[in-house]
Amino acid sequence: MRNLMAQSWCTLSALHSRIDAHVERALQAAHDLSVREFSALLLLSGQHPGEGGHLRMNQLADAVGLSQSATTRLVTRLEDRGLLSRYLCSTDRRGIYTDVTPAGLELLAKAQPTNDAALAEALAEAERQPELATLVAAVRALDSSWPNPSAST
To answer: b vs e for 117-143, b when ≥16 Cβ sit within 10 Å of the residue's Cβ?
Structure first.
């Protein structure tokens, strides 16, 4: 049983690595953004002013899969590029929030189609690998709005 579980985990990890690398190359080439930077902009763009509407740095770190120190460096890079701004939480002066600037929202809007196309390409490519096809189907089932090129063939 453990051997099967370890093999399944390795297969899932391989799928993630393939997709991540493909999307990374596309975002870097077209928009000078890493996958993590894109993910941070996407997550932070969904914030709202209401209760629980802002992510703390540790929440952002968990969501983008980085350590807190790596997330701080990522936010600093995006802030230096004028894509994010930071400010103190009005109810807890120890808390620092981060908002996407208008330039960040513009870049995110331009990068979204690149991300989506690269993701669809990576999934279609992985789907042609028998050992990955079942996982790709599971990923597609999570969001039925994703295009499924094999469904029309």
So the answer is: ebbeebbeebbeeeebeebbeebbeee
- Is residue 136 within 8 A of residue 123, CB to CB? The reply is yes
Amino acid at 49: P
Mind listing the pLDDT tens digit for each residue in 14-26? 999 999 999 999 9
Query: Of 45, 42, 38, 118, whose CA–CA distance to 77 is shortest?
Result: 38
Question: How many Å apart are CA 151 and CA 153, to the nearest integer?
Answer: 6
User: 35 is written with which tokens?
Assistant: 């996958």
Give SS3 for 93: coil
Which two structure tokens, joined as six digits, stand for 26?
């596309």
In the chain, % of residues over pLDDT 70: 92
Bridge partners of residue 88, in order along the sequence: 96
Burial class (CB in 10 A: 0-12, 13-18, 19+), 31: middle
Q: Which two tokens stand for residue 34?
A: 């890493």
* Rounded Cα distance, 27 and 15, in Å: 18
pTM of the predicted model as reported, rounded to 2 decimal places: 0.85
